[in-house]
Amino acid sequence: MPCLVSANNTQILQHPPHSQIAADWQAARAYKDAGIIYNGIIEGFNGGGLIVRFHSLLGFLPFPLLSPSYSCKEPDKTIQEIAKDLLYSLISVKVITVDEDKWNLIFSEKEAAWSRFSDQVKIGDTFEGRVGPIEDFGAFVHLRFPDGLYHLTGLVHISEVSWDLVADVRDILTEADEVRVKVINVDREKSRISLSIKQVQEDPLLENVKKLIPQDGFADRSSSGVCYRGGINPLPGLQTILDELLHEDGIYDARIRRQGLEKRVLSHDLQLWLSNAPPANQRFNLLARTGRQRQKQQVSFSFDRNEARPHLFPGMSGRKETVLDLAKFVDKGVQVKLTGGRQVTGTLKGYDQLLNLVLDEAVEFLRDPDDPLKTTDQTRNLGLIVCRGTAVMLVSPTDGTDEIANPFIQPDGA
Prior knowledge:
The protein contains seven helices and 24 strands. It has four domains: 3-114, CATH 2.40.50.140; 121-200, CATH 2.40.50.140; 208-312, no CATH class; 327-397, SH3 type barrels (Roll), CATH 2.30.30. It is mostly beta strands and 414 residues long. The longest helix has 17 residues, at 18-34. Residues 1-13, 213-230 and 315-322 have low confidence and may be disordered.
């Protein structure tokens, strides 16, 4: 800005000529139209934002348009303390509003950050992030980049917070929480990033069978005659059961084939049940679990399948079966409704007494973001999965079922 210097070296500020001010307003419009990043000096702040110098003009940068990197770097500081620390520093911004008549010049640091860093964000990428403002419809998450700073912000919609039904985002997340997120959409025209927290986690209700019970190691035979895979120790109490099975007439082999870990403790007692899958080469599959551990055993026999249960579960032939007769649905298409409004279809390949269902070629119908209790026509392929019995609410065949109009709705004018 031009100034006069007096004899005692005192600077006397002089207003810039009108022609220069007009030229600077024209330059501001050019910056806005071209989307060019401008580097300006922060000359002050007030209760709503920063005052940034643009040649002879002073523009305004509202605090909500400030990069999240400052608050994430120093979360204990108030926005006023952050603004004070930024005084007389250089800041990169974009011009987003130019109104010469109202003397209104607005900047955005977020828009400048989008131009610089959005190319580093691709669909499918995962980021570490910090939870920002939380709204009824979701939570904003600030993304941490390789330089350690949080340059961009995305939205985790309420439907992407958790695999479970979420009534209030605040029940799950708190501002400043550290989370891991996946980029599920990037709208470059509107400078928006859609994120998901649940998609970086395995679905707790629909799990891939190979992940549930991975095949590790190879089979060895113990001194008692029971085979188990290298590095796998039988669950507490299971060794005794398998040894006793080998003394049963018609059973000549018992092998521990696989083991895996559950996501949560399901029972502290040892549970053992017989798979409904048809036997292969005269071998039955037994599943055992306790705590978070699960193991799969193969039992070789030389008797008829109908005689198997009394041998495998002596004294339990009279126990109650599940009220659902799922045997007639095996290898057929079924529709499964789960807690929280989720719905999947697939081919039923097996089940157990706890109603854990094995579905092949499974497809999930995605829920309506605005009403999580409703499903849409959008789907995602899941492949071979296990539906947890504790989450199963309804099982029905896909063949022979059709959607009909509600007969209880009165027609207009009735």
